[in-house]
Design brief:
Length: about 130
């Protein structure tokens, strides 16, 4: 229910069931991100600085998960919404979802593509 509420607000999109392939991908990547953020590997370098060199493998995994998540958001949400916006007639009175406002800011030059992806990713994490 939380995913559907959040993704409806953000992207005007919902998942048909818990077996939806995109829902399963999101759930798996969000779970992996949470697991990495809550593991002891994440913060032992903060408490024992001499052990920081051993974080390389962990940081590599974190980077891979981040790249997969950003690519997923780009492919399934941002690019899809851009295509939809380019095919629909522009109507300022119509109801817009959050990504429409974010993409509008990008078109005005207020933010760039990376900012769009990180905003979407951060909102997803917050949800």
């Amino acid at each position: 229910m939380m995913y559907n509420n959040m993704y409806r607000i953000m992207f005007d999109r919902r998942f048909e069931s818990e077996d939806d392939p995109l829902f399963l991908k999101l759930k798996a990547l969000n779970g992996e991100r949470s697991r990495l953020a809550q593991s002891f590997e994440y913060n032992y370098g903060d408490f024992i600085p001499i052990l920081r060199p051993f974080l390389r493998g962990y940081l590599k995994i974190c980077k891979e998960v981040k790249e997969k998540r950003l690519q997923l958001f780009k492919d399934y949400f941002v690019d899809e919404r851009k295509k939809l916006a380019s095919t629909k007639a522009t109507d300022n009175d119509s109801l817009k979802c959050a990504i429409d406002h974010i993409l509008e800011a990008q078109q005005k030059g207020e933010i760039n593509e990376d900012n769009v992806l990180y905003i979407v990713e951060n909102i997803n994490v917050a949800a």
